[in-house]
Amino acid sequence: MKKDLSKAFQEAQGNVGNWSLPDVRALLDFIAVSRASSHIDWEPGDEEWGRVLEGNAVVAFVCAKVPLVVLHKSLIELVSSINKDGGPLVVVAESFGSESYSVDRQVLESLFGHCITVNISCDSLSITDLWWATV
């Protein structure tokens, strides 16, 4: 059974008033500091997602559009620190490459303001596919 991310995006969109580019950067910094070998990949204002990588492996995606972060399960200890006092919604993923997620295409298109490529199956996608389609 696929995990539907539609409600997560809708819930996060309801809290968009509490989210700004400085908030995105602060969260990326917080996550990166938690891992000595990590670095941030994000072009503010140009990309809708920032990423934290350990070496070449992505361990977190932070959405700049809405307060939503997707953490790899290896960072599960950060969930309570991030998701406190109205902080961003946290989704923990077993794998970023597994096509174990789904999302309503209309929810994504409305939120990100563009058509999502038909090359992505919204019925069966990975977190990396989601990032690629909406970055």
Q: Which spans of ≥5 residues are poorly predicted at pLDDT below 50?
A: none
Termini separation comes to 26 Å
Nearest-integer average pLDDT: 94
Q: Main sheet: which strands, in order across?
A: 2-3-4-5-6
Helical content stands at 25-40%
**Helix-strand topology string:** EHHEEEEHEEHH
C-alpha Rg, in Å?
A: 14 Å
Shape: globular
Structural class: alpha/beta
How many helical elements? 5
Number of discrete domains: 1
Our estimate of the beta-strand percent is 15-25%
Number of strands: 7
Main beta sheet: 5 strands, mixed
What brief labels describe this structure?
135 residues; alpha/beta; five-stranded mixed beta sheet; 5 helices; 7 strands; 31% helix; globular
Write the layout of secondary structure elements.
Blueprint: E1 3-4, H1 6-14, H2 21-33, E2 38-41, E3 49-54, E4 57-63, E5 68-72, H3 79-82, E6 89-93, E7 101-102, H4 105-112, H5 127-134
Parallel strand pairs: 1-7, 5-6
Antiparallel strand pairs: 2-3, 3-4, 4-5
Any overview of this molecule?
- The protein is α/β, with parallel strands linked by helices and 135 residues long.
- It has one domain (3-97).
- It has five helices and seven strands.
- The strands form two sheets. It has a five-stranded mixed beta sheet with strand order 2-3-4-5-6. Strands 1-7 form a two-stranded parallel sheet.
- A hairpin with a 7-residue loop joins strand 2 (38-41) and strand 3 (49-54).
- The longest helix has 13 residues, at 21-33.
- The protein is globular and about 40 Å long.
- The mean pLDDT is 94.
